[in-house]
Design goal:
- The first copy, chain A, is an alpha+beta fold.
- In chain A, 54% of the residues lie in helices and 9% in strands.
- Chain A has one domain (8-201): 3-Layer(aba) Sandwich (Glutaredoxin).
- In chain A, a hairpin with a 2-residue loop joins β3 (178-181) and β4.
- The radius of gyration of chain A is 16 Å and the shape is globular.
């Protein structure tokens, strides 16, 4: 492992099934190649809007395929998956908590990301946009009562998330998961093999 | 190899880079698992319209990524690739010739598909929507002078292509390449590994 190797930027949204699947393999893949991962919570809607896109599930025909493919891609990756009863949901509050944690401890922020993604995509009945659900997740995670709500309503953390979304768009993200390694962008859970080849051999 | 195994339906567009890449591996993949391939030329625009989608290259931000990803995905698959000087182009004439050939010899139609895809995506200066270019390709392929133009202007083959596009949409296609095997849909060159697992083990 060389200390000169740059981290992998990993842009994700808490309500993105492919982000969830990727979140389950990205750390091991990075570690195999002496890299670290820089997790970055963003809002998929902001990246869609910048690229004049909509969610795949808001398109006729593509919606049905996408729902099938989310589940099949999770099985293919060996990742547990239960389609959430409410989908998609607004994730800005979970993302603000992420950035609040990140300011002092990026590793703990990544742990929160995994906690939120796993809860949303495996329990089936979690609604990240619901205050009571978010509070329950925050308490499970070890946060003080009311802390998540306070962070979610704080203009400072709202601004931090806005900046993160703008940075993602500037980096070329128009969806999630979106990875950047050594300046090279990779979009989608399905670019795992290309990302791995890049890490193994460099530019190809 | 069991004769009871269904063929793999392979919907492609002559102007789709990911269709081109997939066209270079689909036959070998099918053969490894005792399957045949049923090639089906369609118009990407018709499937986009049905799903209220646009080409990835007509979206800001996603355009730049897509151009990079077309080339990188070709290199990843070990397939020669030169970005066409005119892209995308209308492909209905090439597709009508495909269906004309298909009516008497599906294997020869598949050969025409490969001939057209390779010419468009490796020579760099071929415009499939241009009458002279199409005529040159048709002559290289062994068609009689003027045959391609006659087929392209024939209401019967226009209708056959229309039917093929409608069938693709009915099968759930909203882009290309789109595969259906045993009723299971797979969208994209990047679903190759999932398609192969399906062929190996059945439903997963």
């Amino acid at each position: 492992m060389s200390s000169s190797k740059l981290p992998i930027d990993f842009y994700f949204d808490f309500s993105s099934p492919y982000s969830y699947i990727a979140s389950e393999w990205i750390e091991a893949l990075a570690a195999r190649h002496g890299r670290t991962v820089r997790w970055k919570a963003v809002l998929l809607g902001v990246t869609f809007q910048a690229a004049e896109l909509k969610s795949p599930v808001s398109h006729p025909i593509k919606r049905e395929y996408s729902l099938l493919d989310f589940a099949r891609s999770a099985r293919f990756a060996g990742v547990p998956y239960t389609f959430p009863s409410k989908f998609p949901v607004a994730t800005q509050n979970a993302a603000r908590v992420f950035w609040w944690l990140d300011a002092s401890d990026p590793q703990r922020a990544a742990d929160w990301a995994r906690h939120g993604l796993r809860a949303y995509f495996t329990r089936g009945d979690v609604d990240l946009s619901n205050g009571a659900d978010l509070e329950r997740l925050a308490r499970e995670f070890g946060l003080a009562p009311g802390q998540a709500e306070a962070v979610a309503g704080d203009p400072g953390w709202k601004g931090r998330l806005r900046d993160a979304c703008a940075e993602a768009v500037a980096a070329g993200a128009f969806g999630a998961p979106f990875f950047v390694v050594d300046g090279e962008p990779f979009w989608g859970n399905d670019r795992r093999d290309q990302l791995e080849r890049w890490l193994e051999r460099g530019a190809f």
